[in-house]
Amino acid sequence: MPKGDHSGRTQTRAYTHEYQRIYAKAFKPLLTEPLGSYTLTGTNLFATHKTLQLKELNGQRFAQFTINDKPHLVGLSLDNSSASNKLYITCPKCSKQRQSLYAIKQGYYCRECIGLHYSSQSERLKHRRIRRIRKLRKSLYGCDHPDINNLVVNIVYWQKPPYIRWDTFEAKRNIILKLERECWGAFNPQETYQNLTFK
Against a cut of 0.85, is the pTM above it? Predict the structure, then answer.
């Protein structure tokens, strides 16, 4: 079941995966480049959203886009509190530091300012259980197990991976088994079988 499946419901929310976005890491090379005109590559953005002027004011660099004939400023802020020196880009509306901004006709803004939702926020309980079971299965057994995504196959008879202690393995497996029982309870397979008709 895909994330954010509406199961016949009318979609009323806008989701993050429906919009193009820019990432802070794409701007990190510009911290040492000379000021001037640059173009974002490898994106499906409009031309006005790709072309930028790299400028600097009071030692702070920022990217200036021209969108709808108006200047649109995205600040570049380097976090020196850690060894990674992570770069953040600033949302022009709320001025908060973000790792990515989303492209709309008016410019670039963060998820909160646009009012976007993650697709997982529209999942029903049973779909969230399915996603969690598969995630825990992969963390315990790896992604190469042939039935890792097949919830019809119970993991109770699967062999213990060689790299894990027995007590740790049993504790993690019991969590998965509990979720699987809850998942099948949500689907109510007995009711499904009772509604089957054979010809």
Answer: no
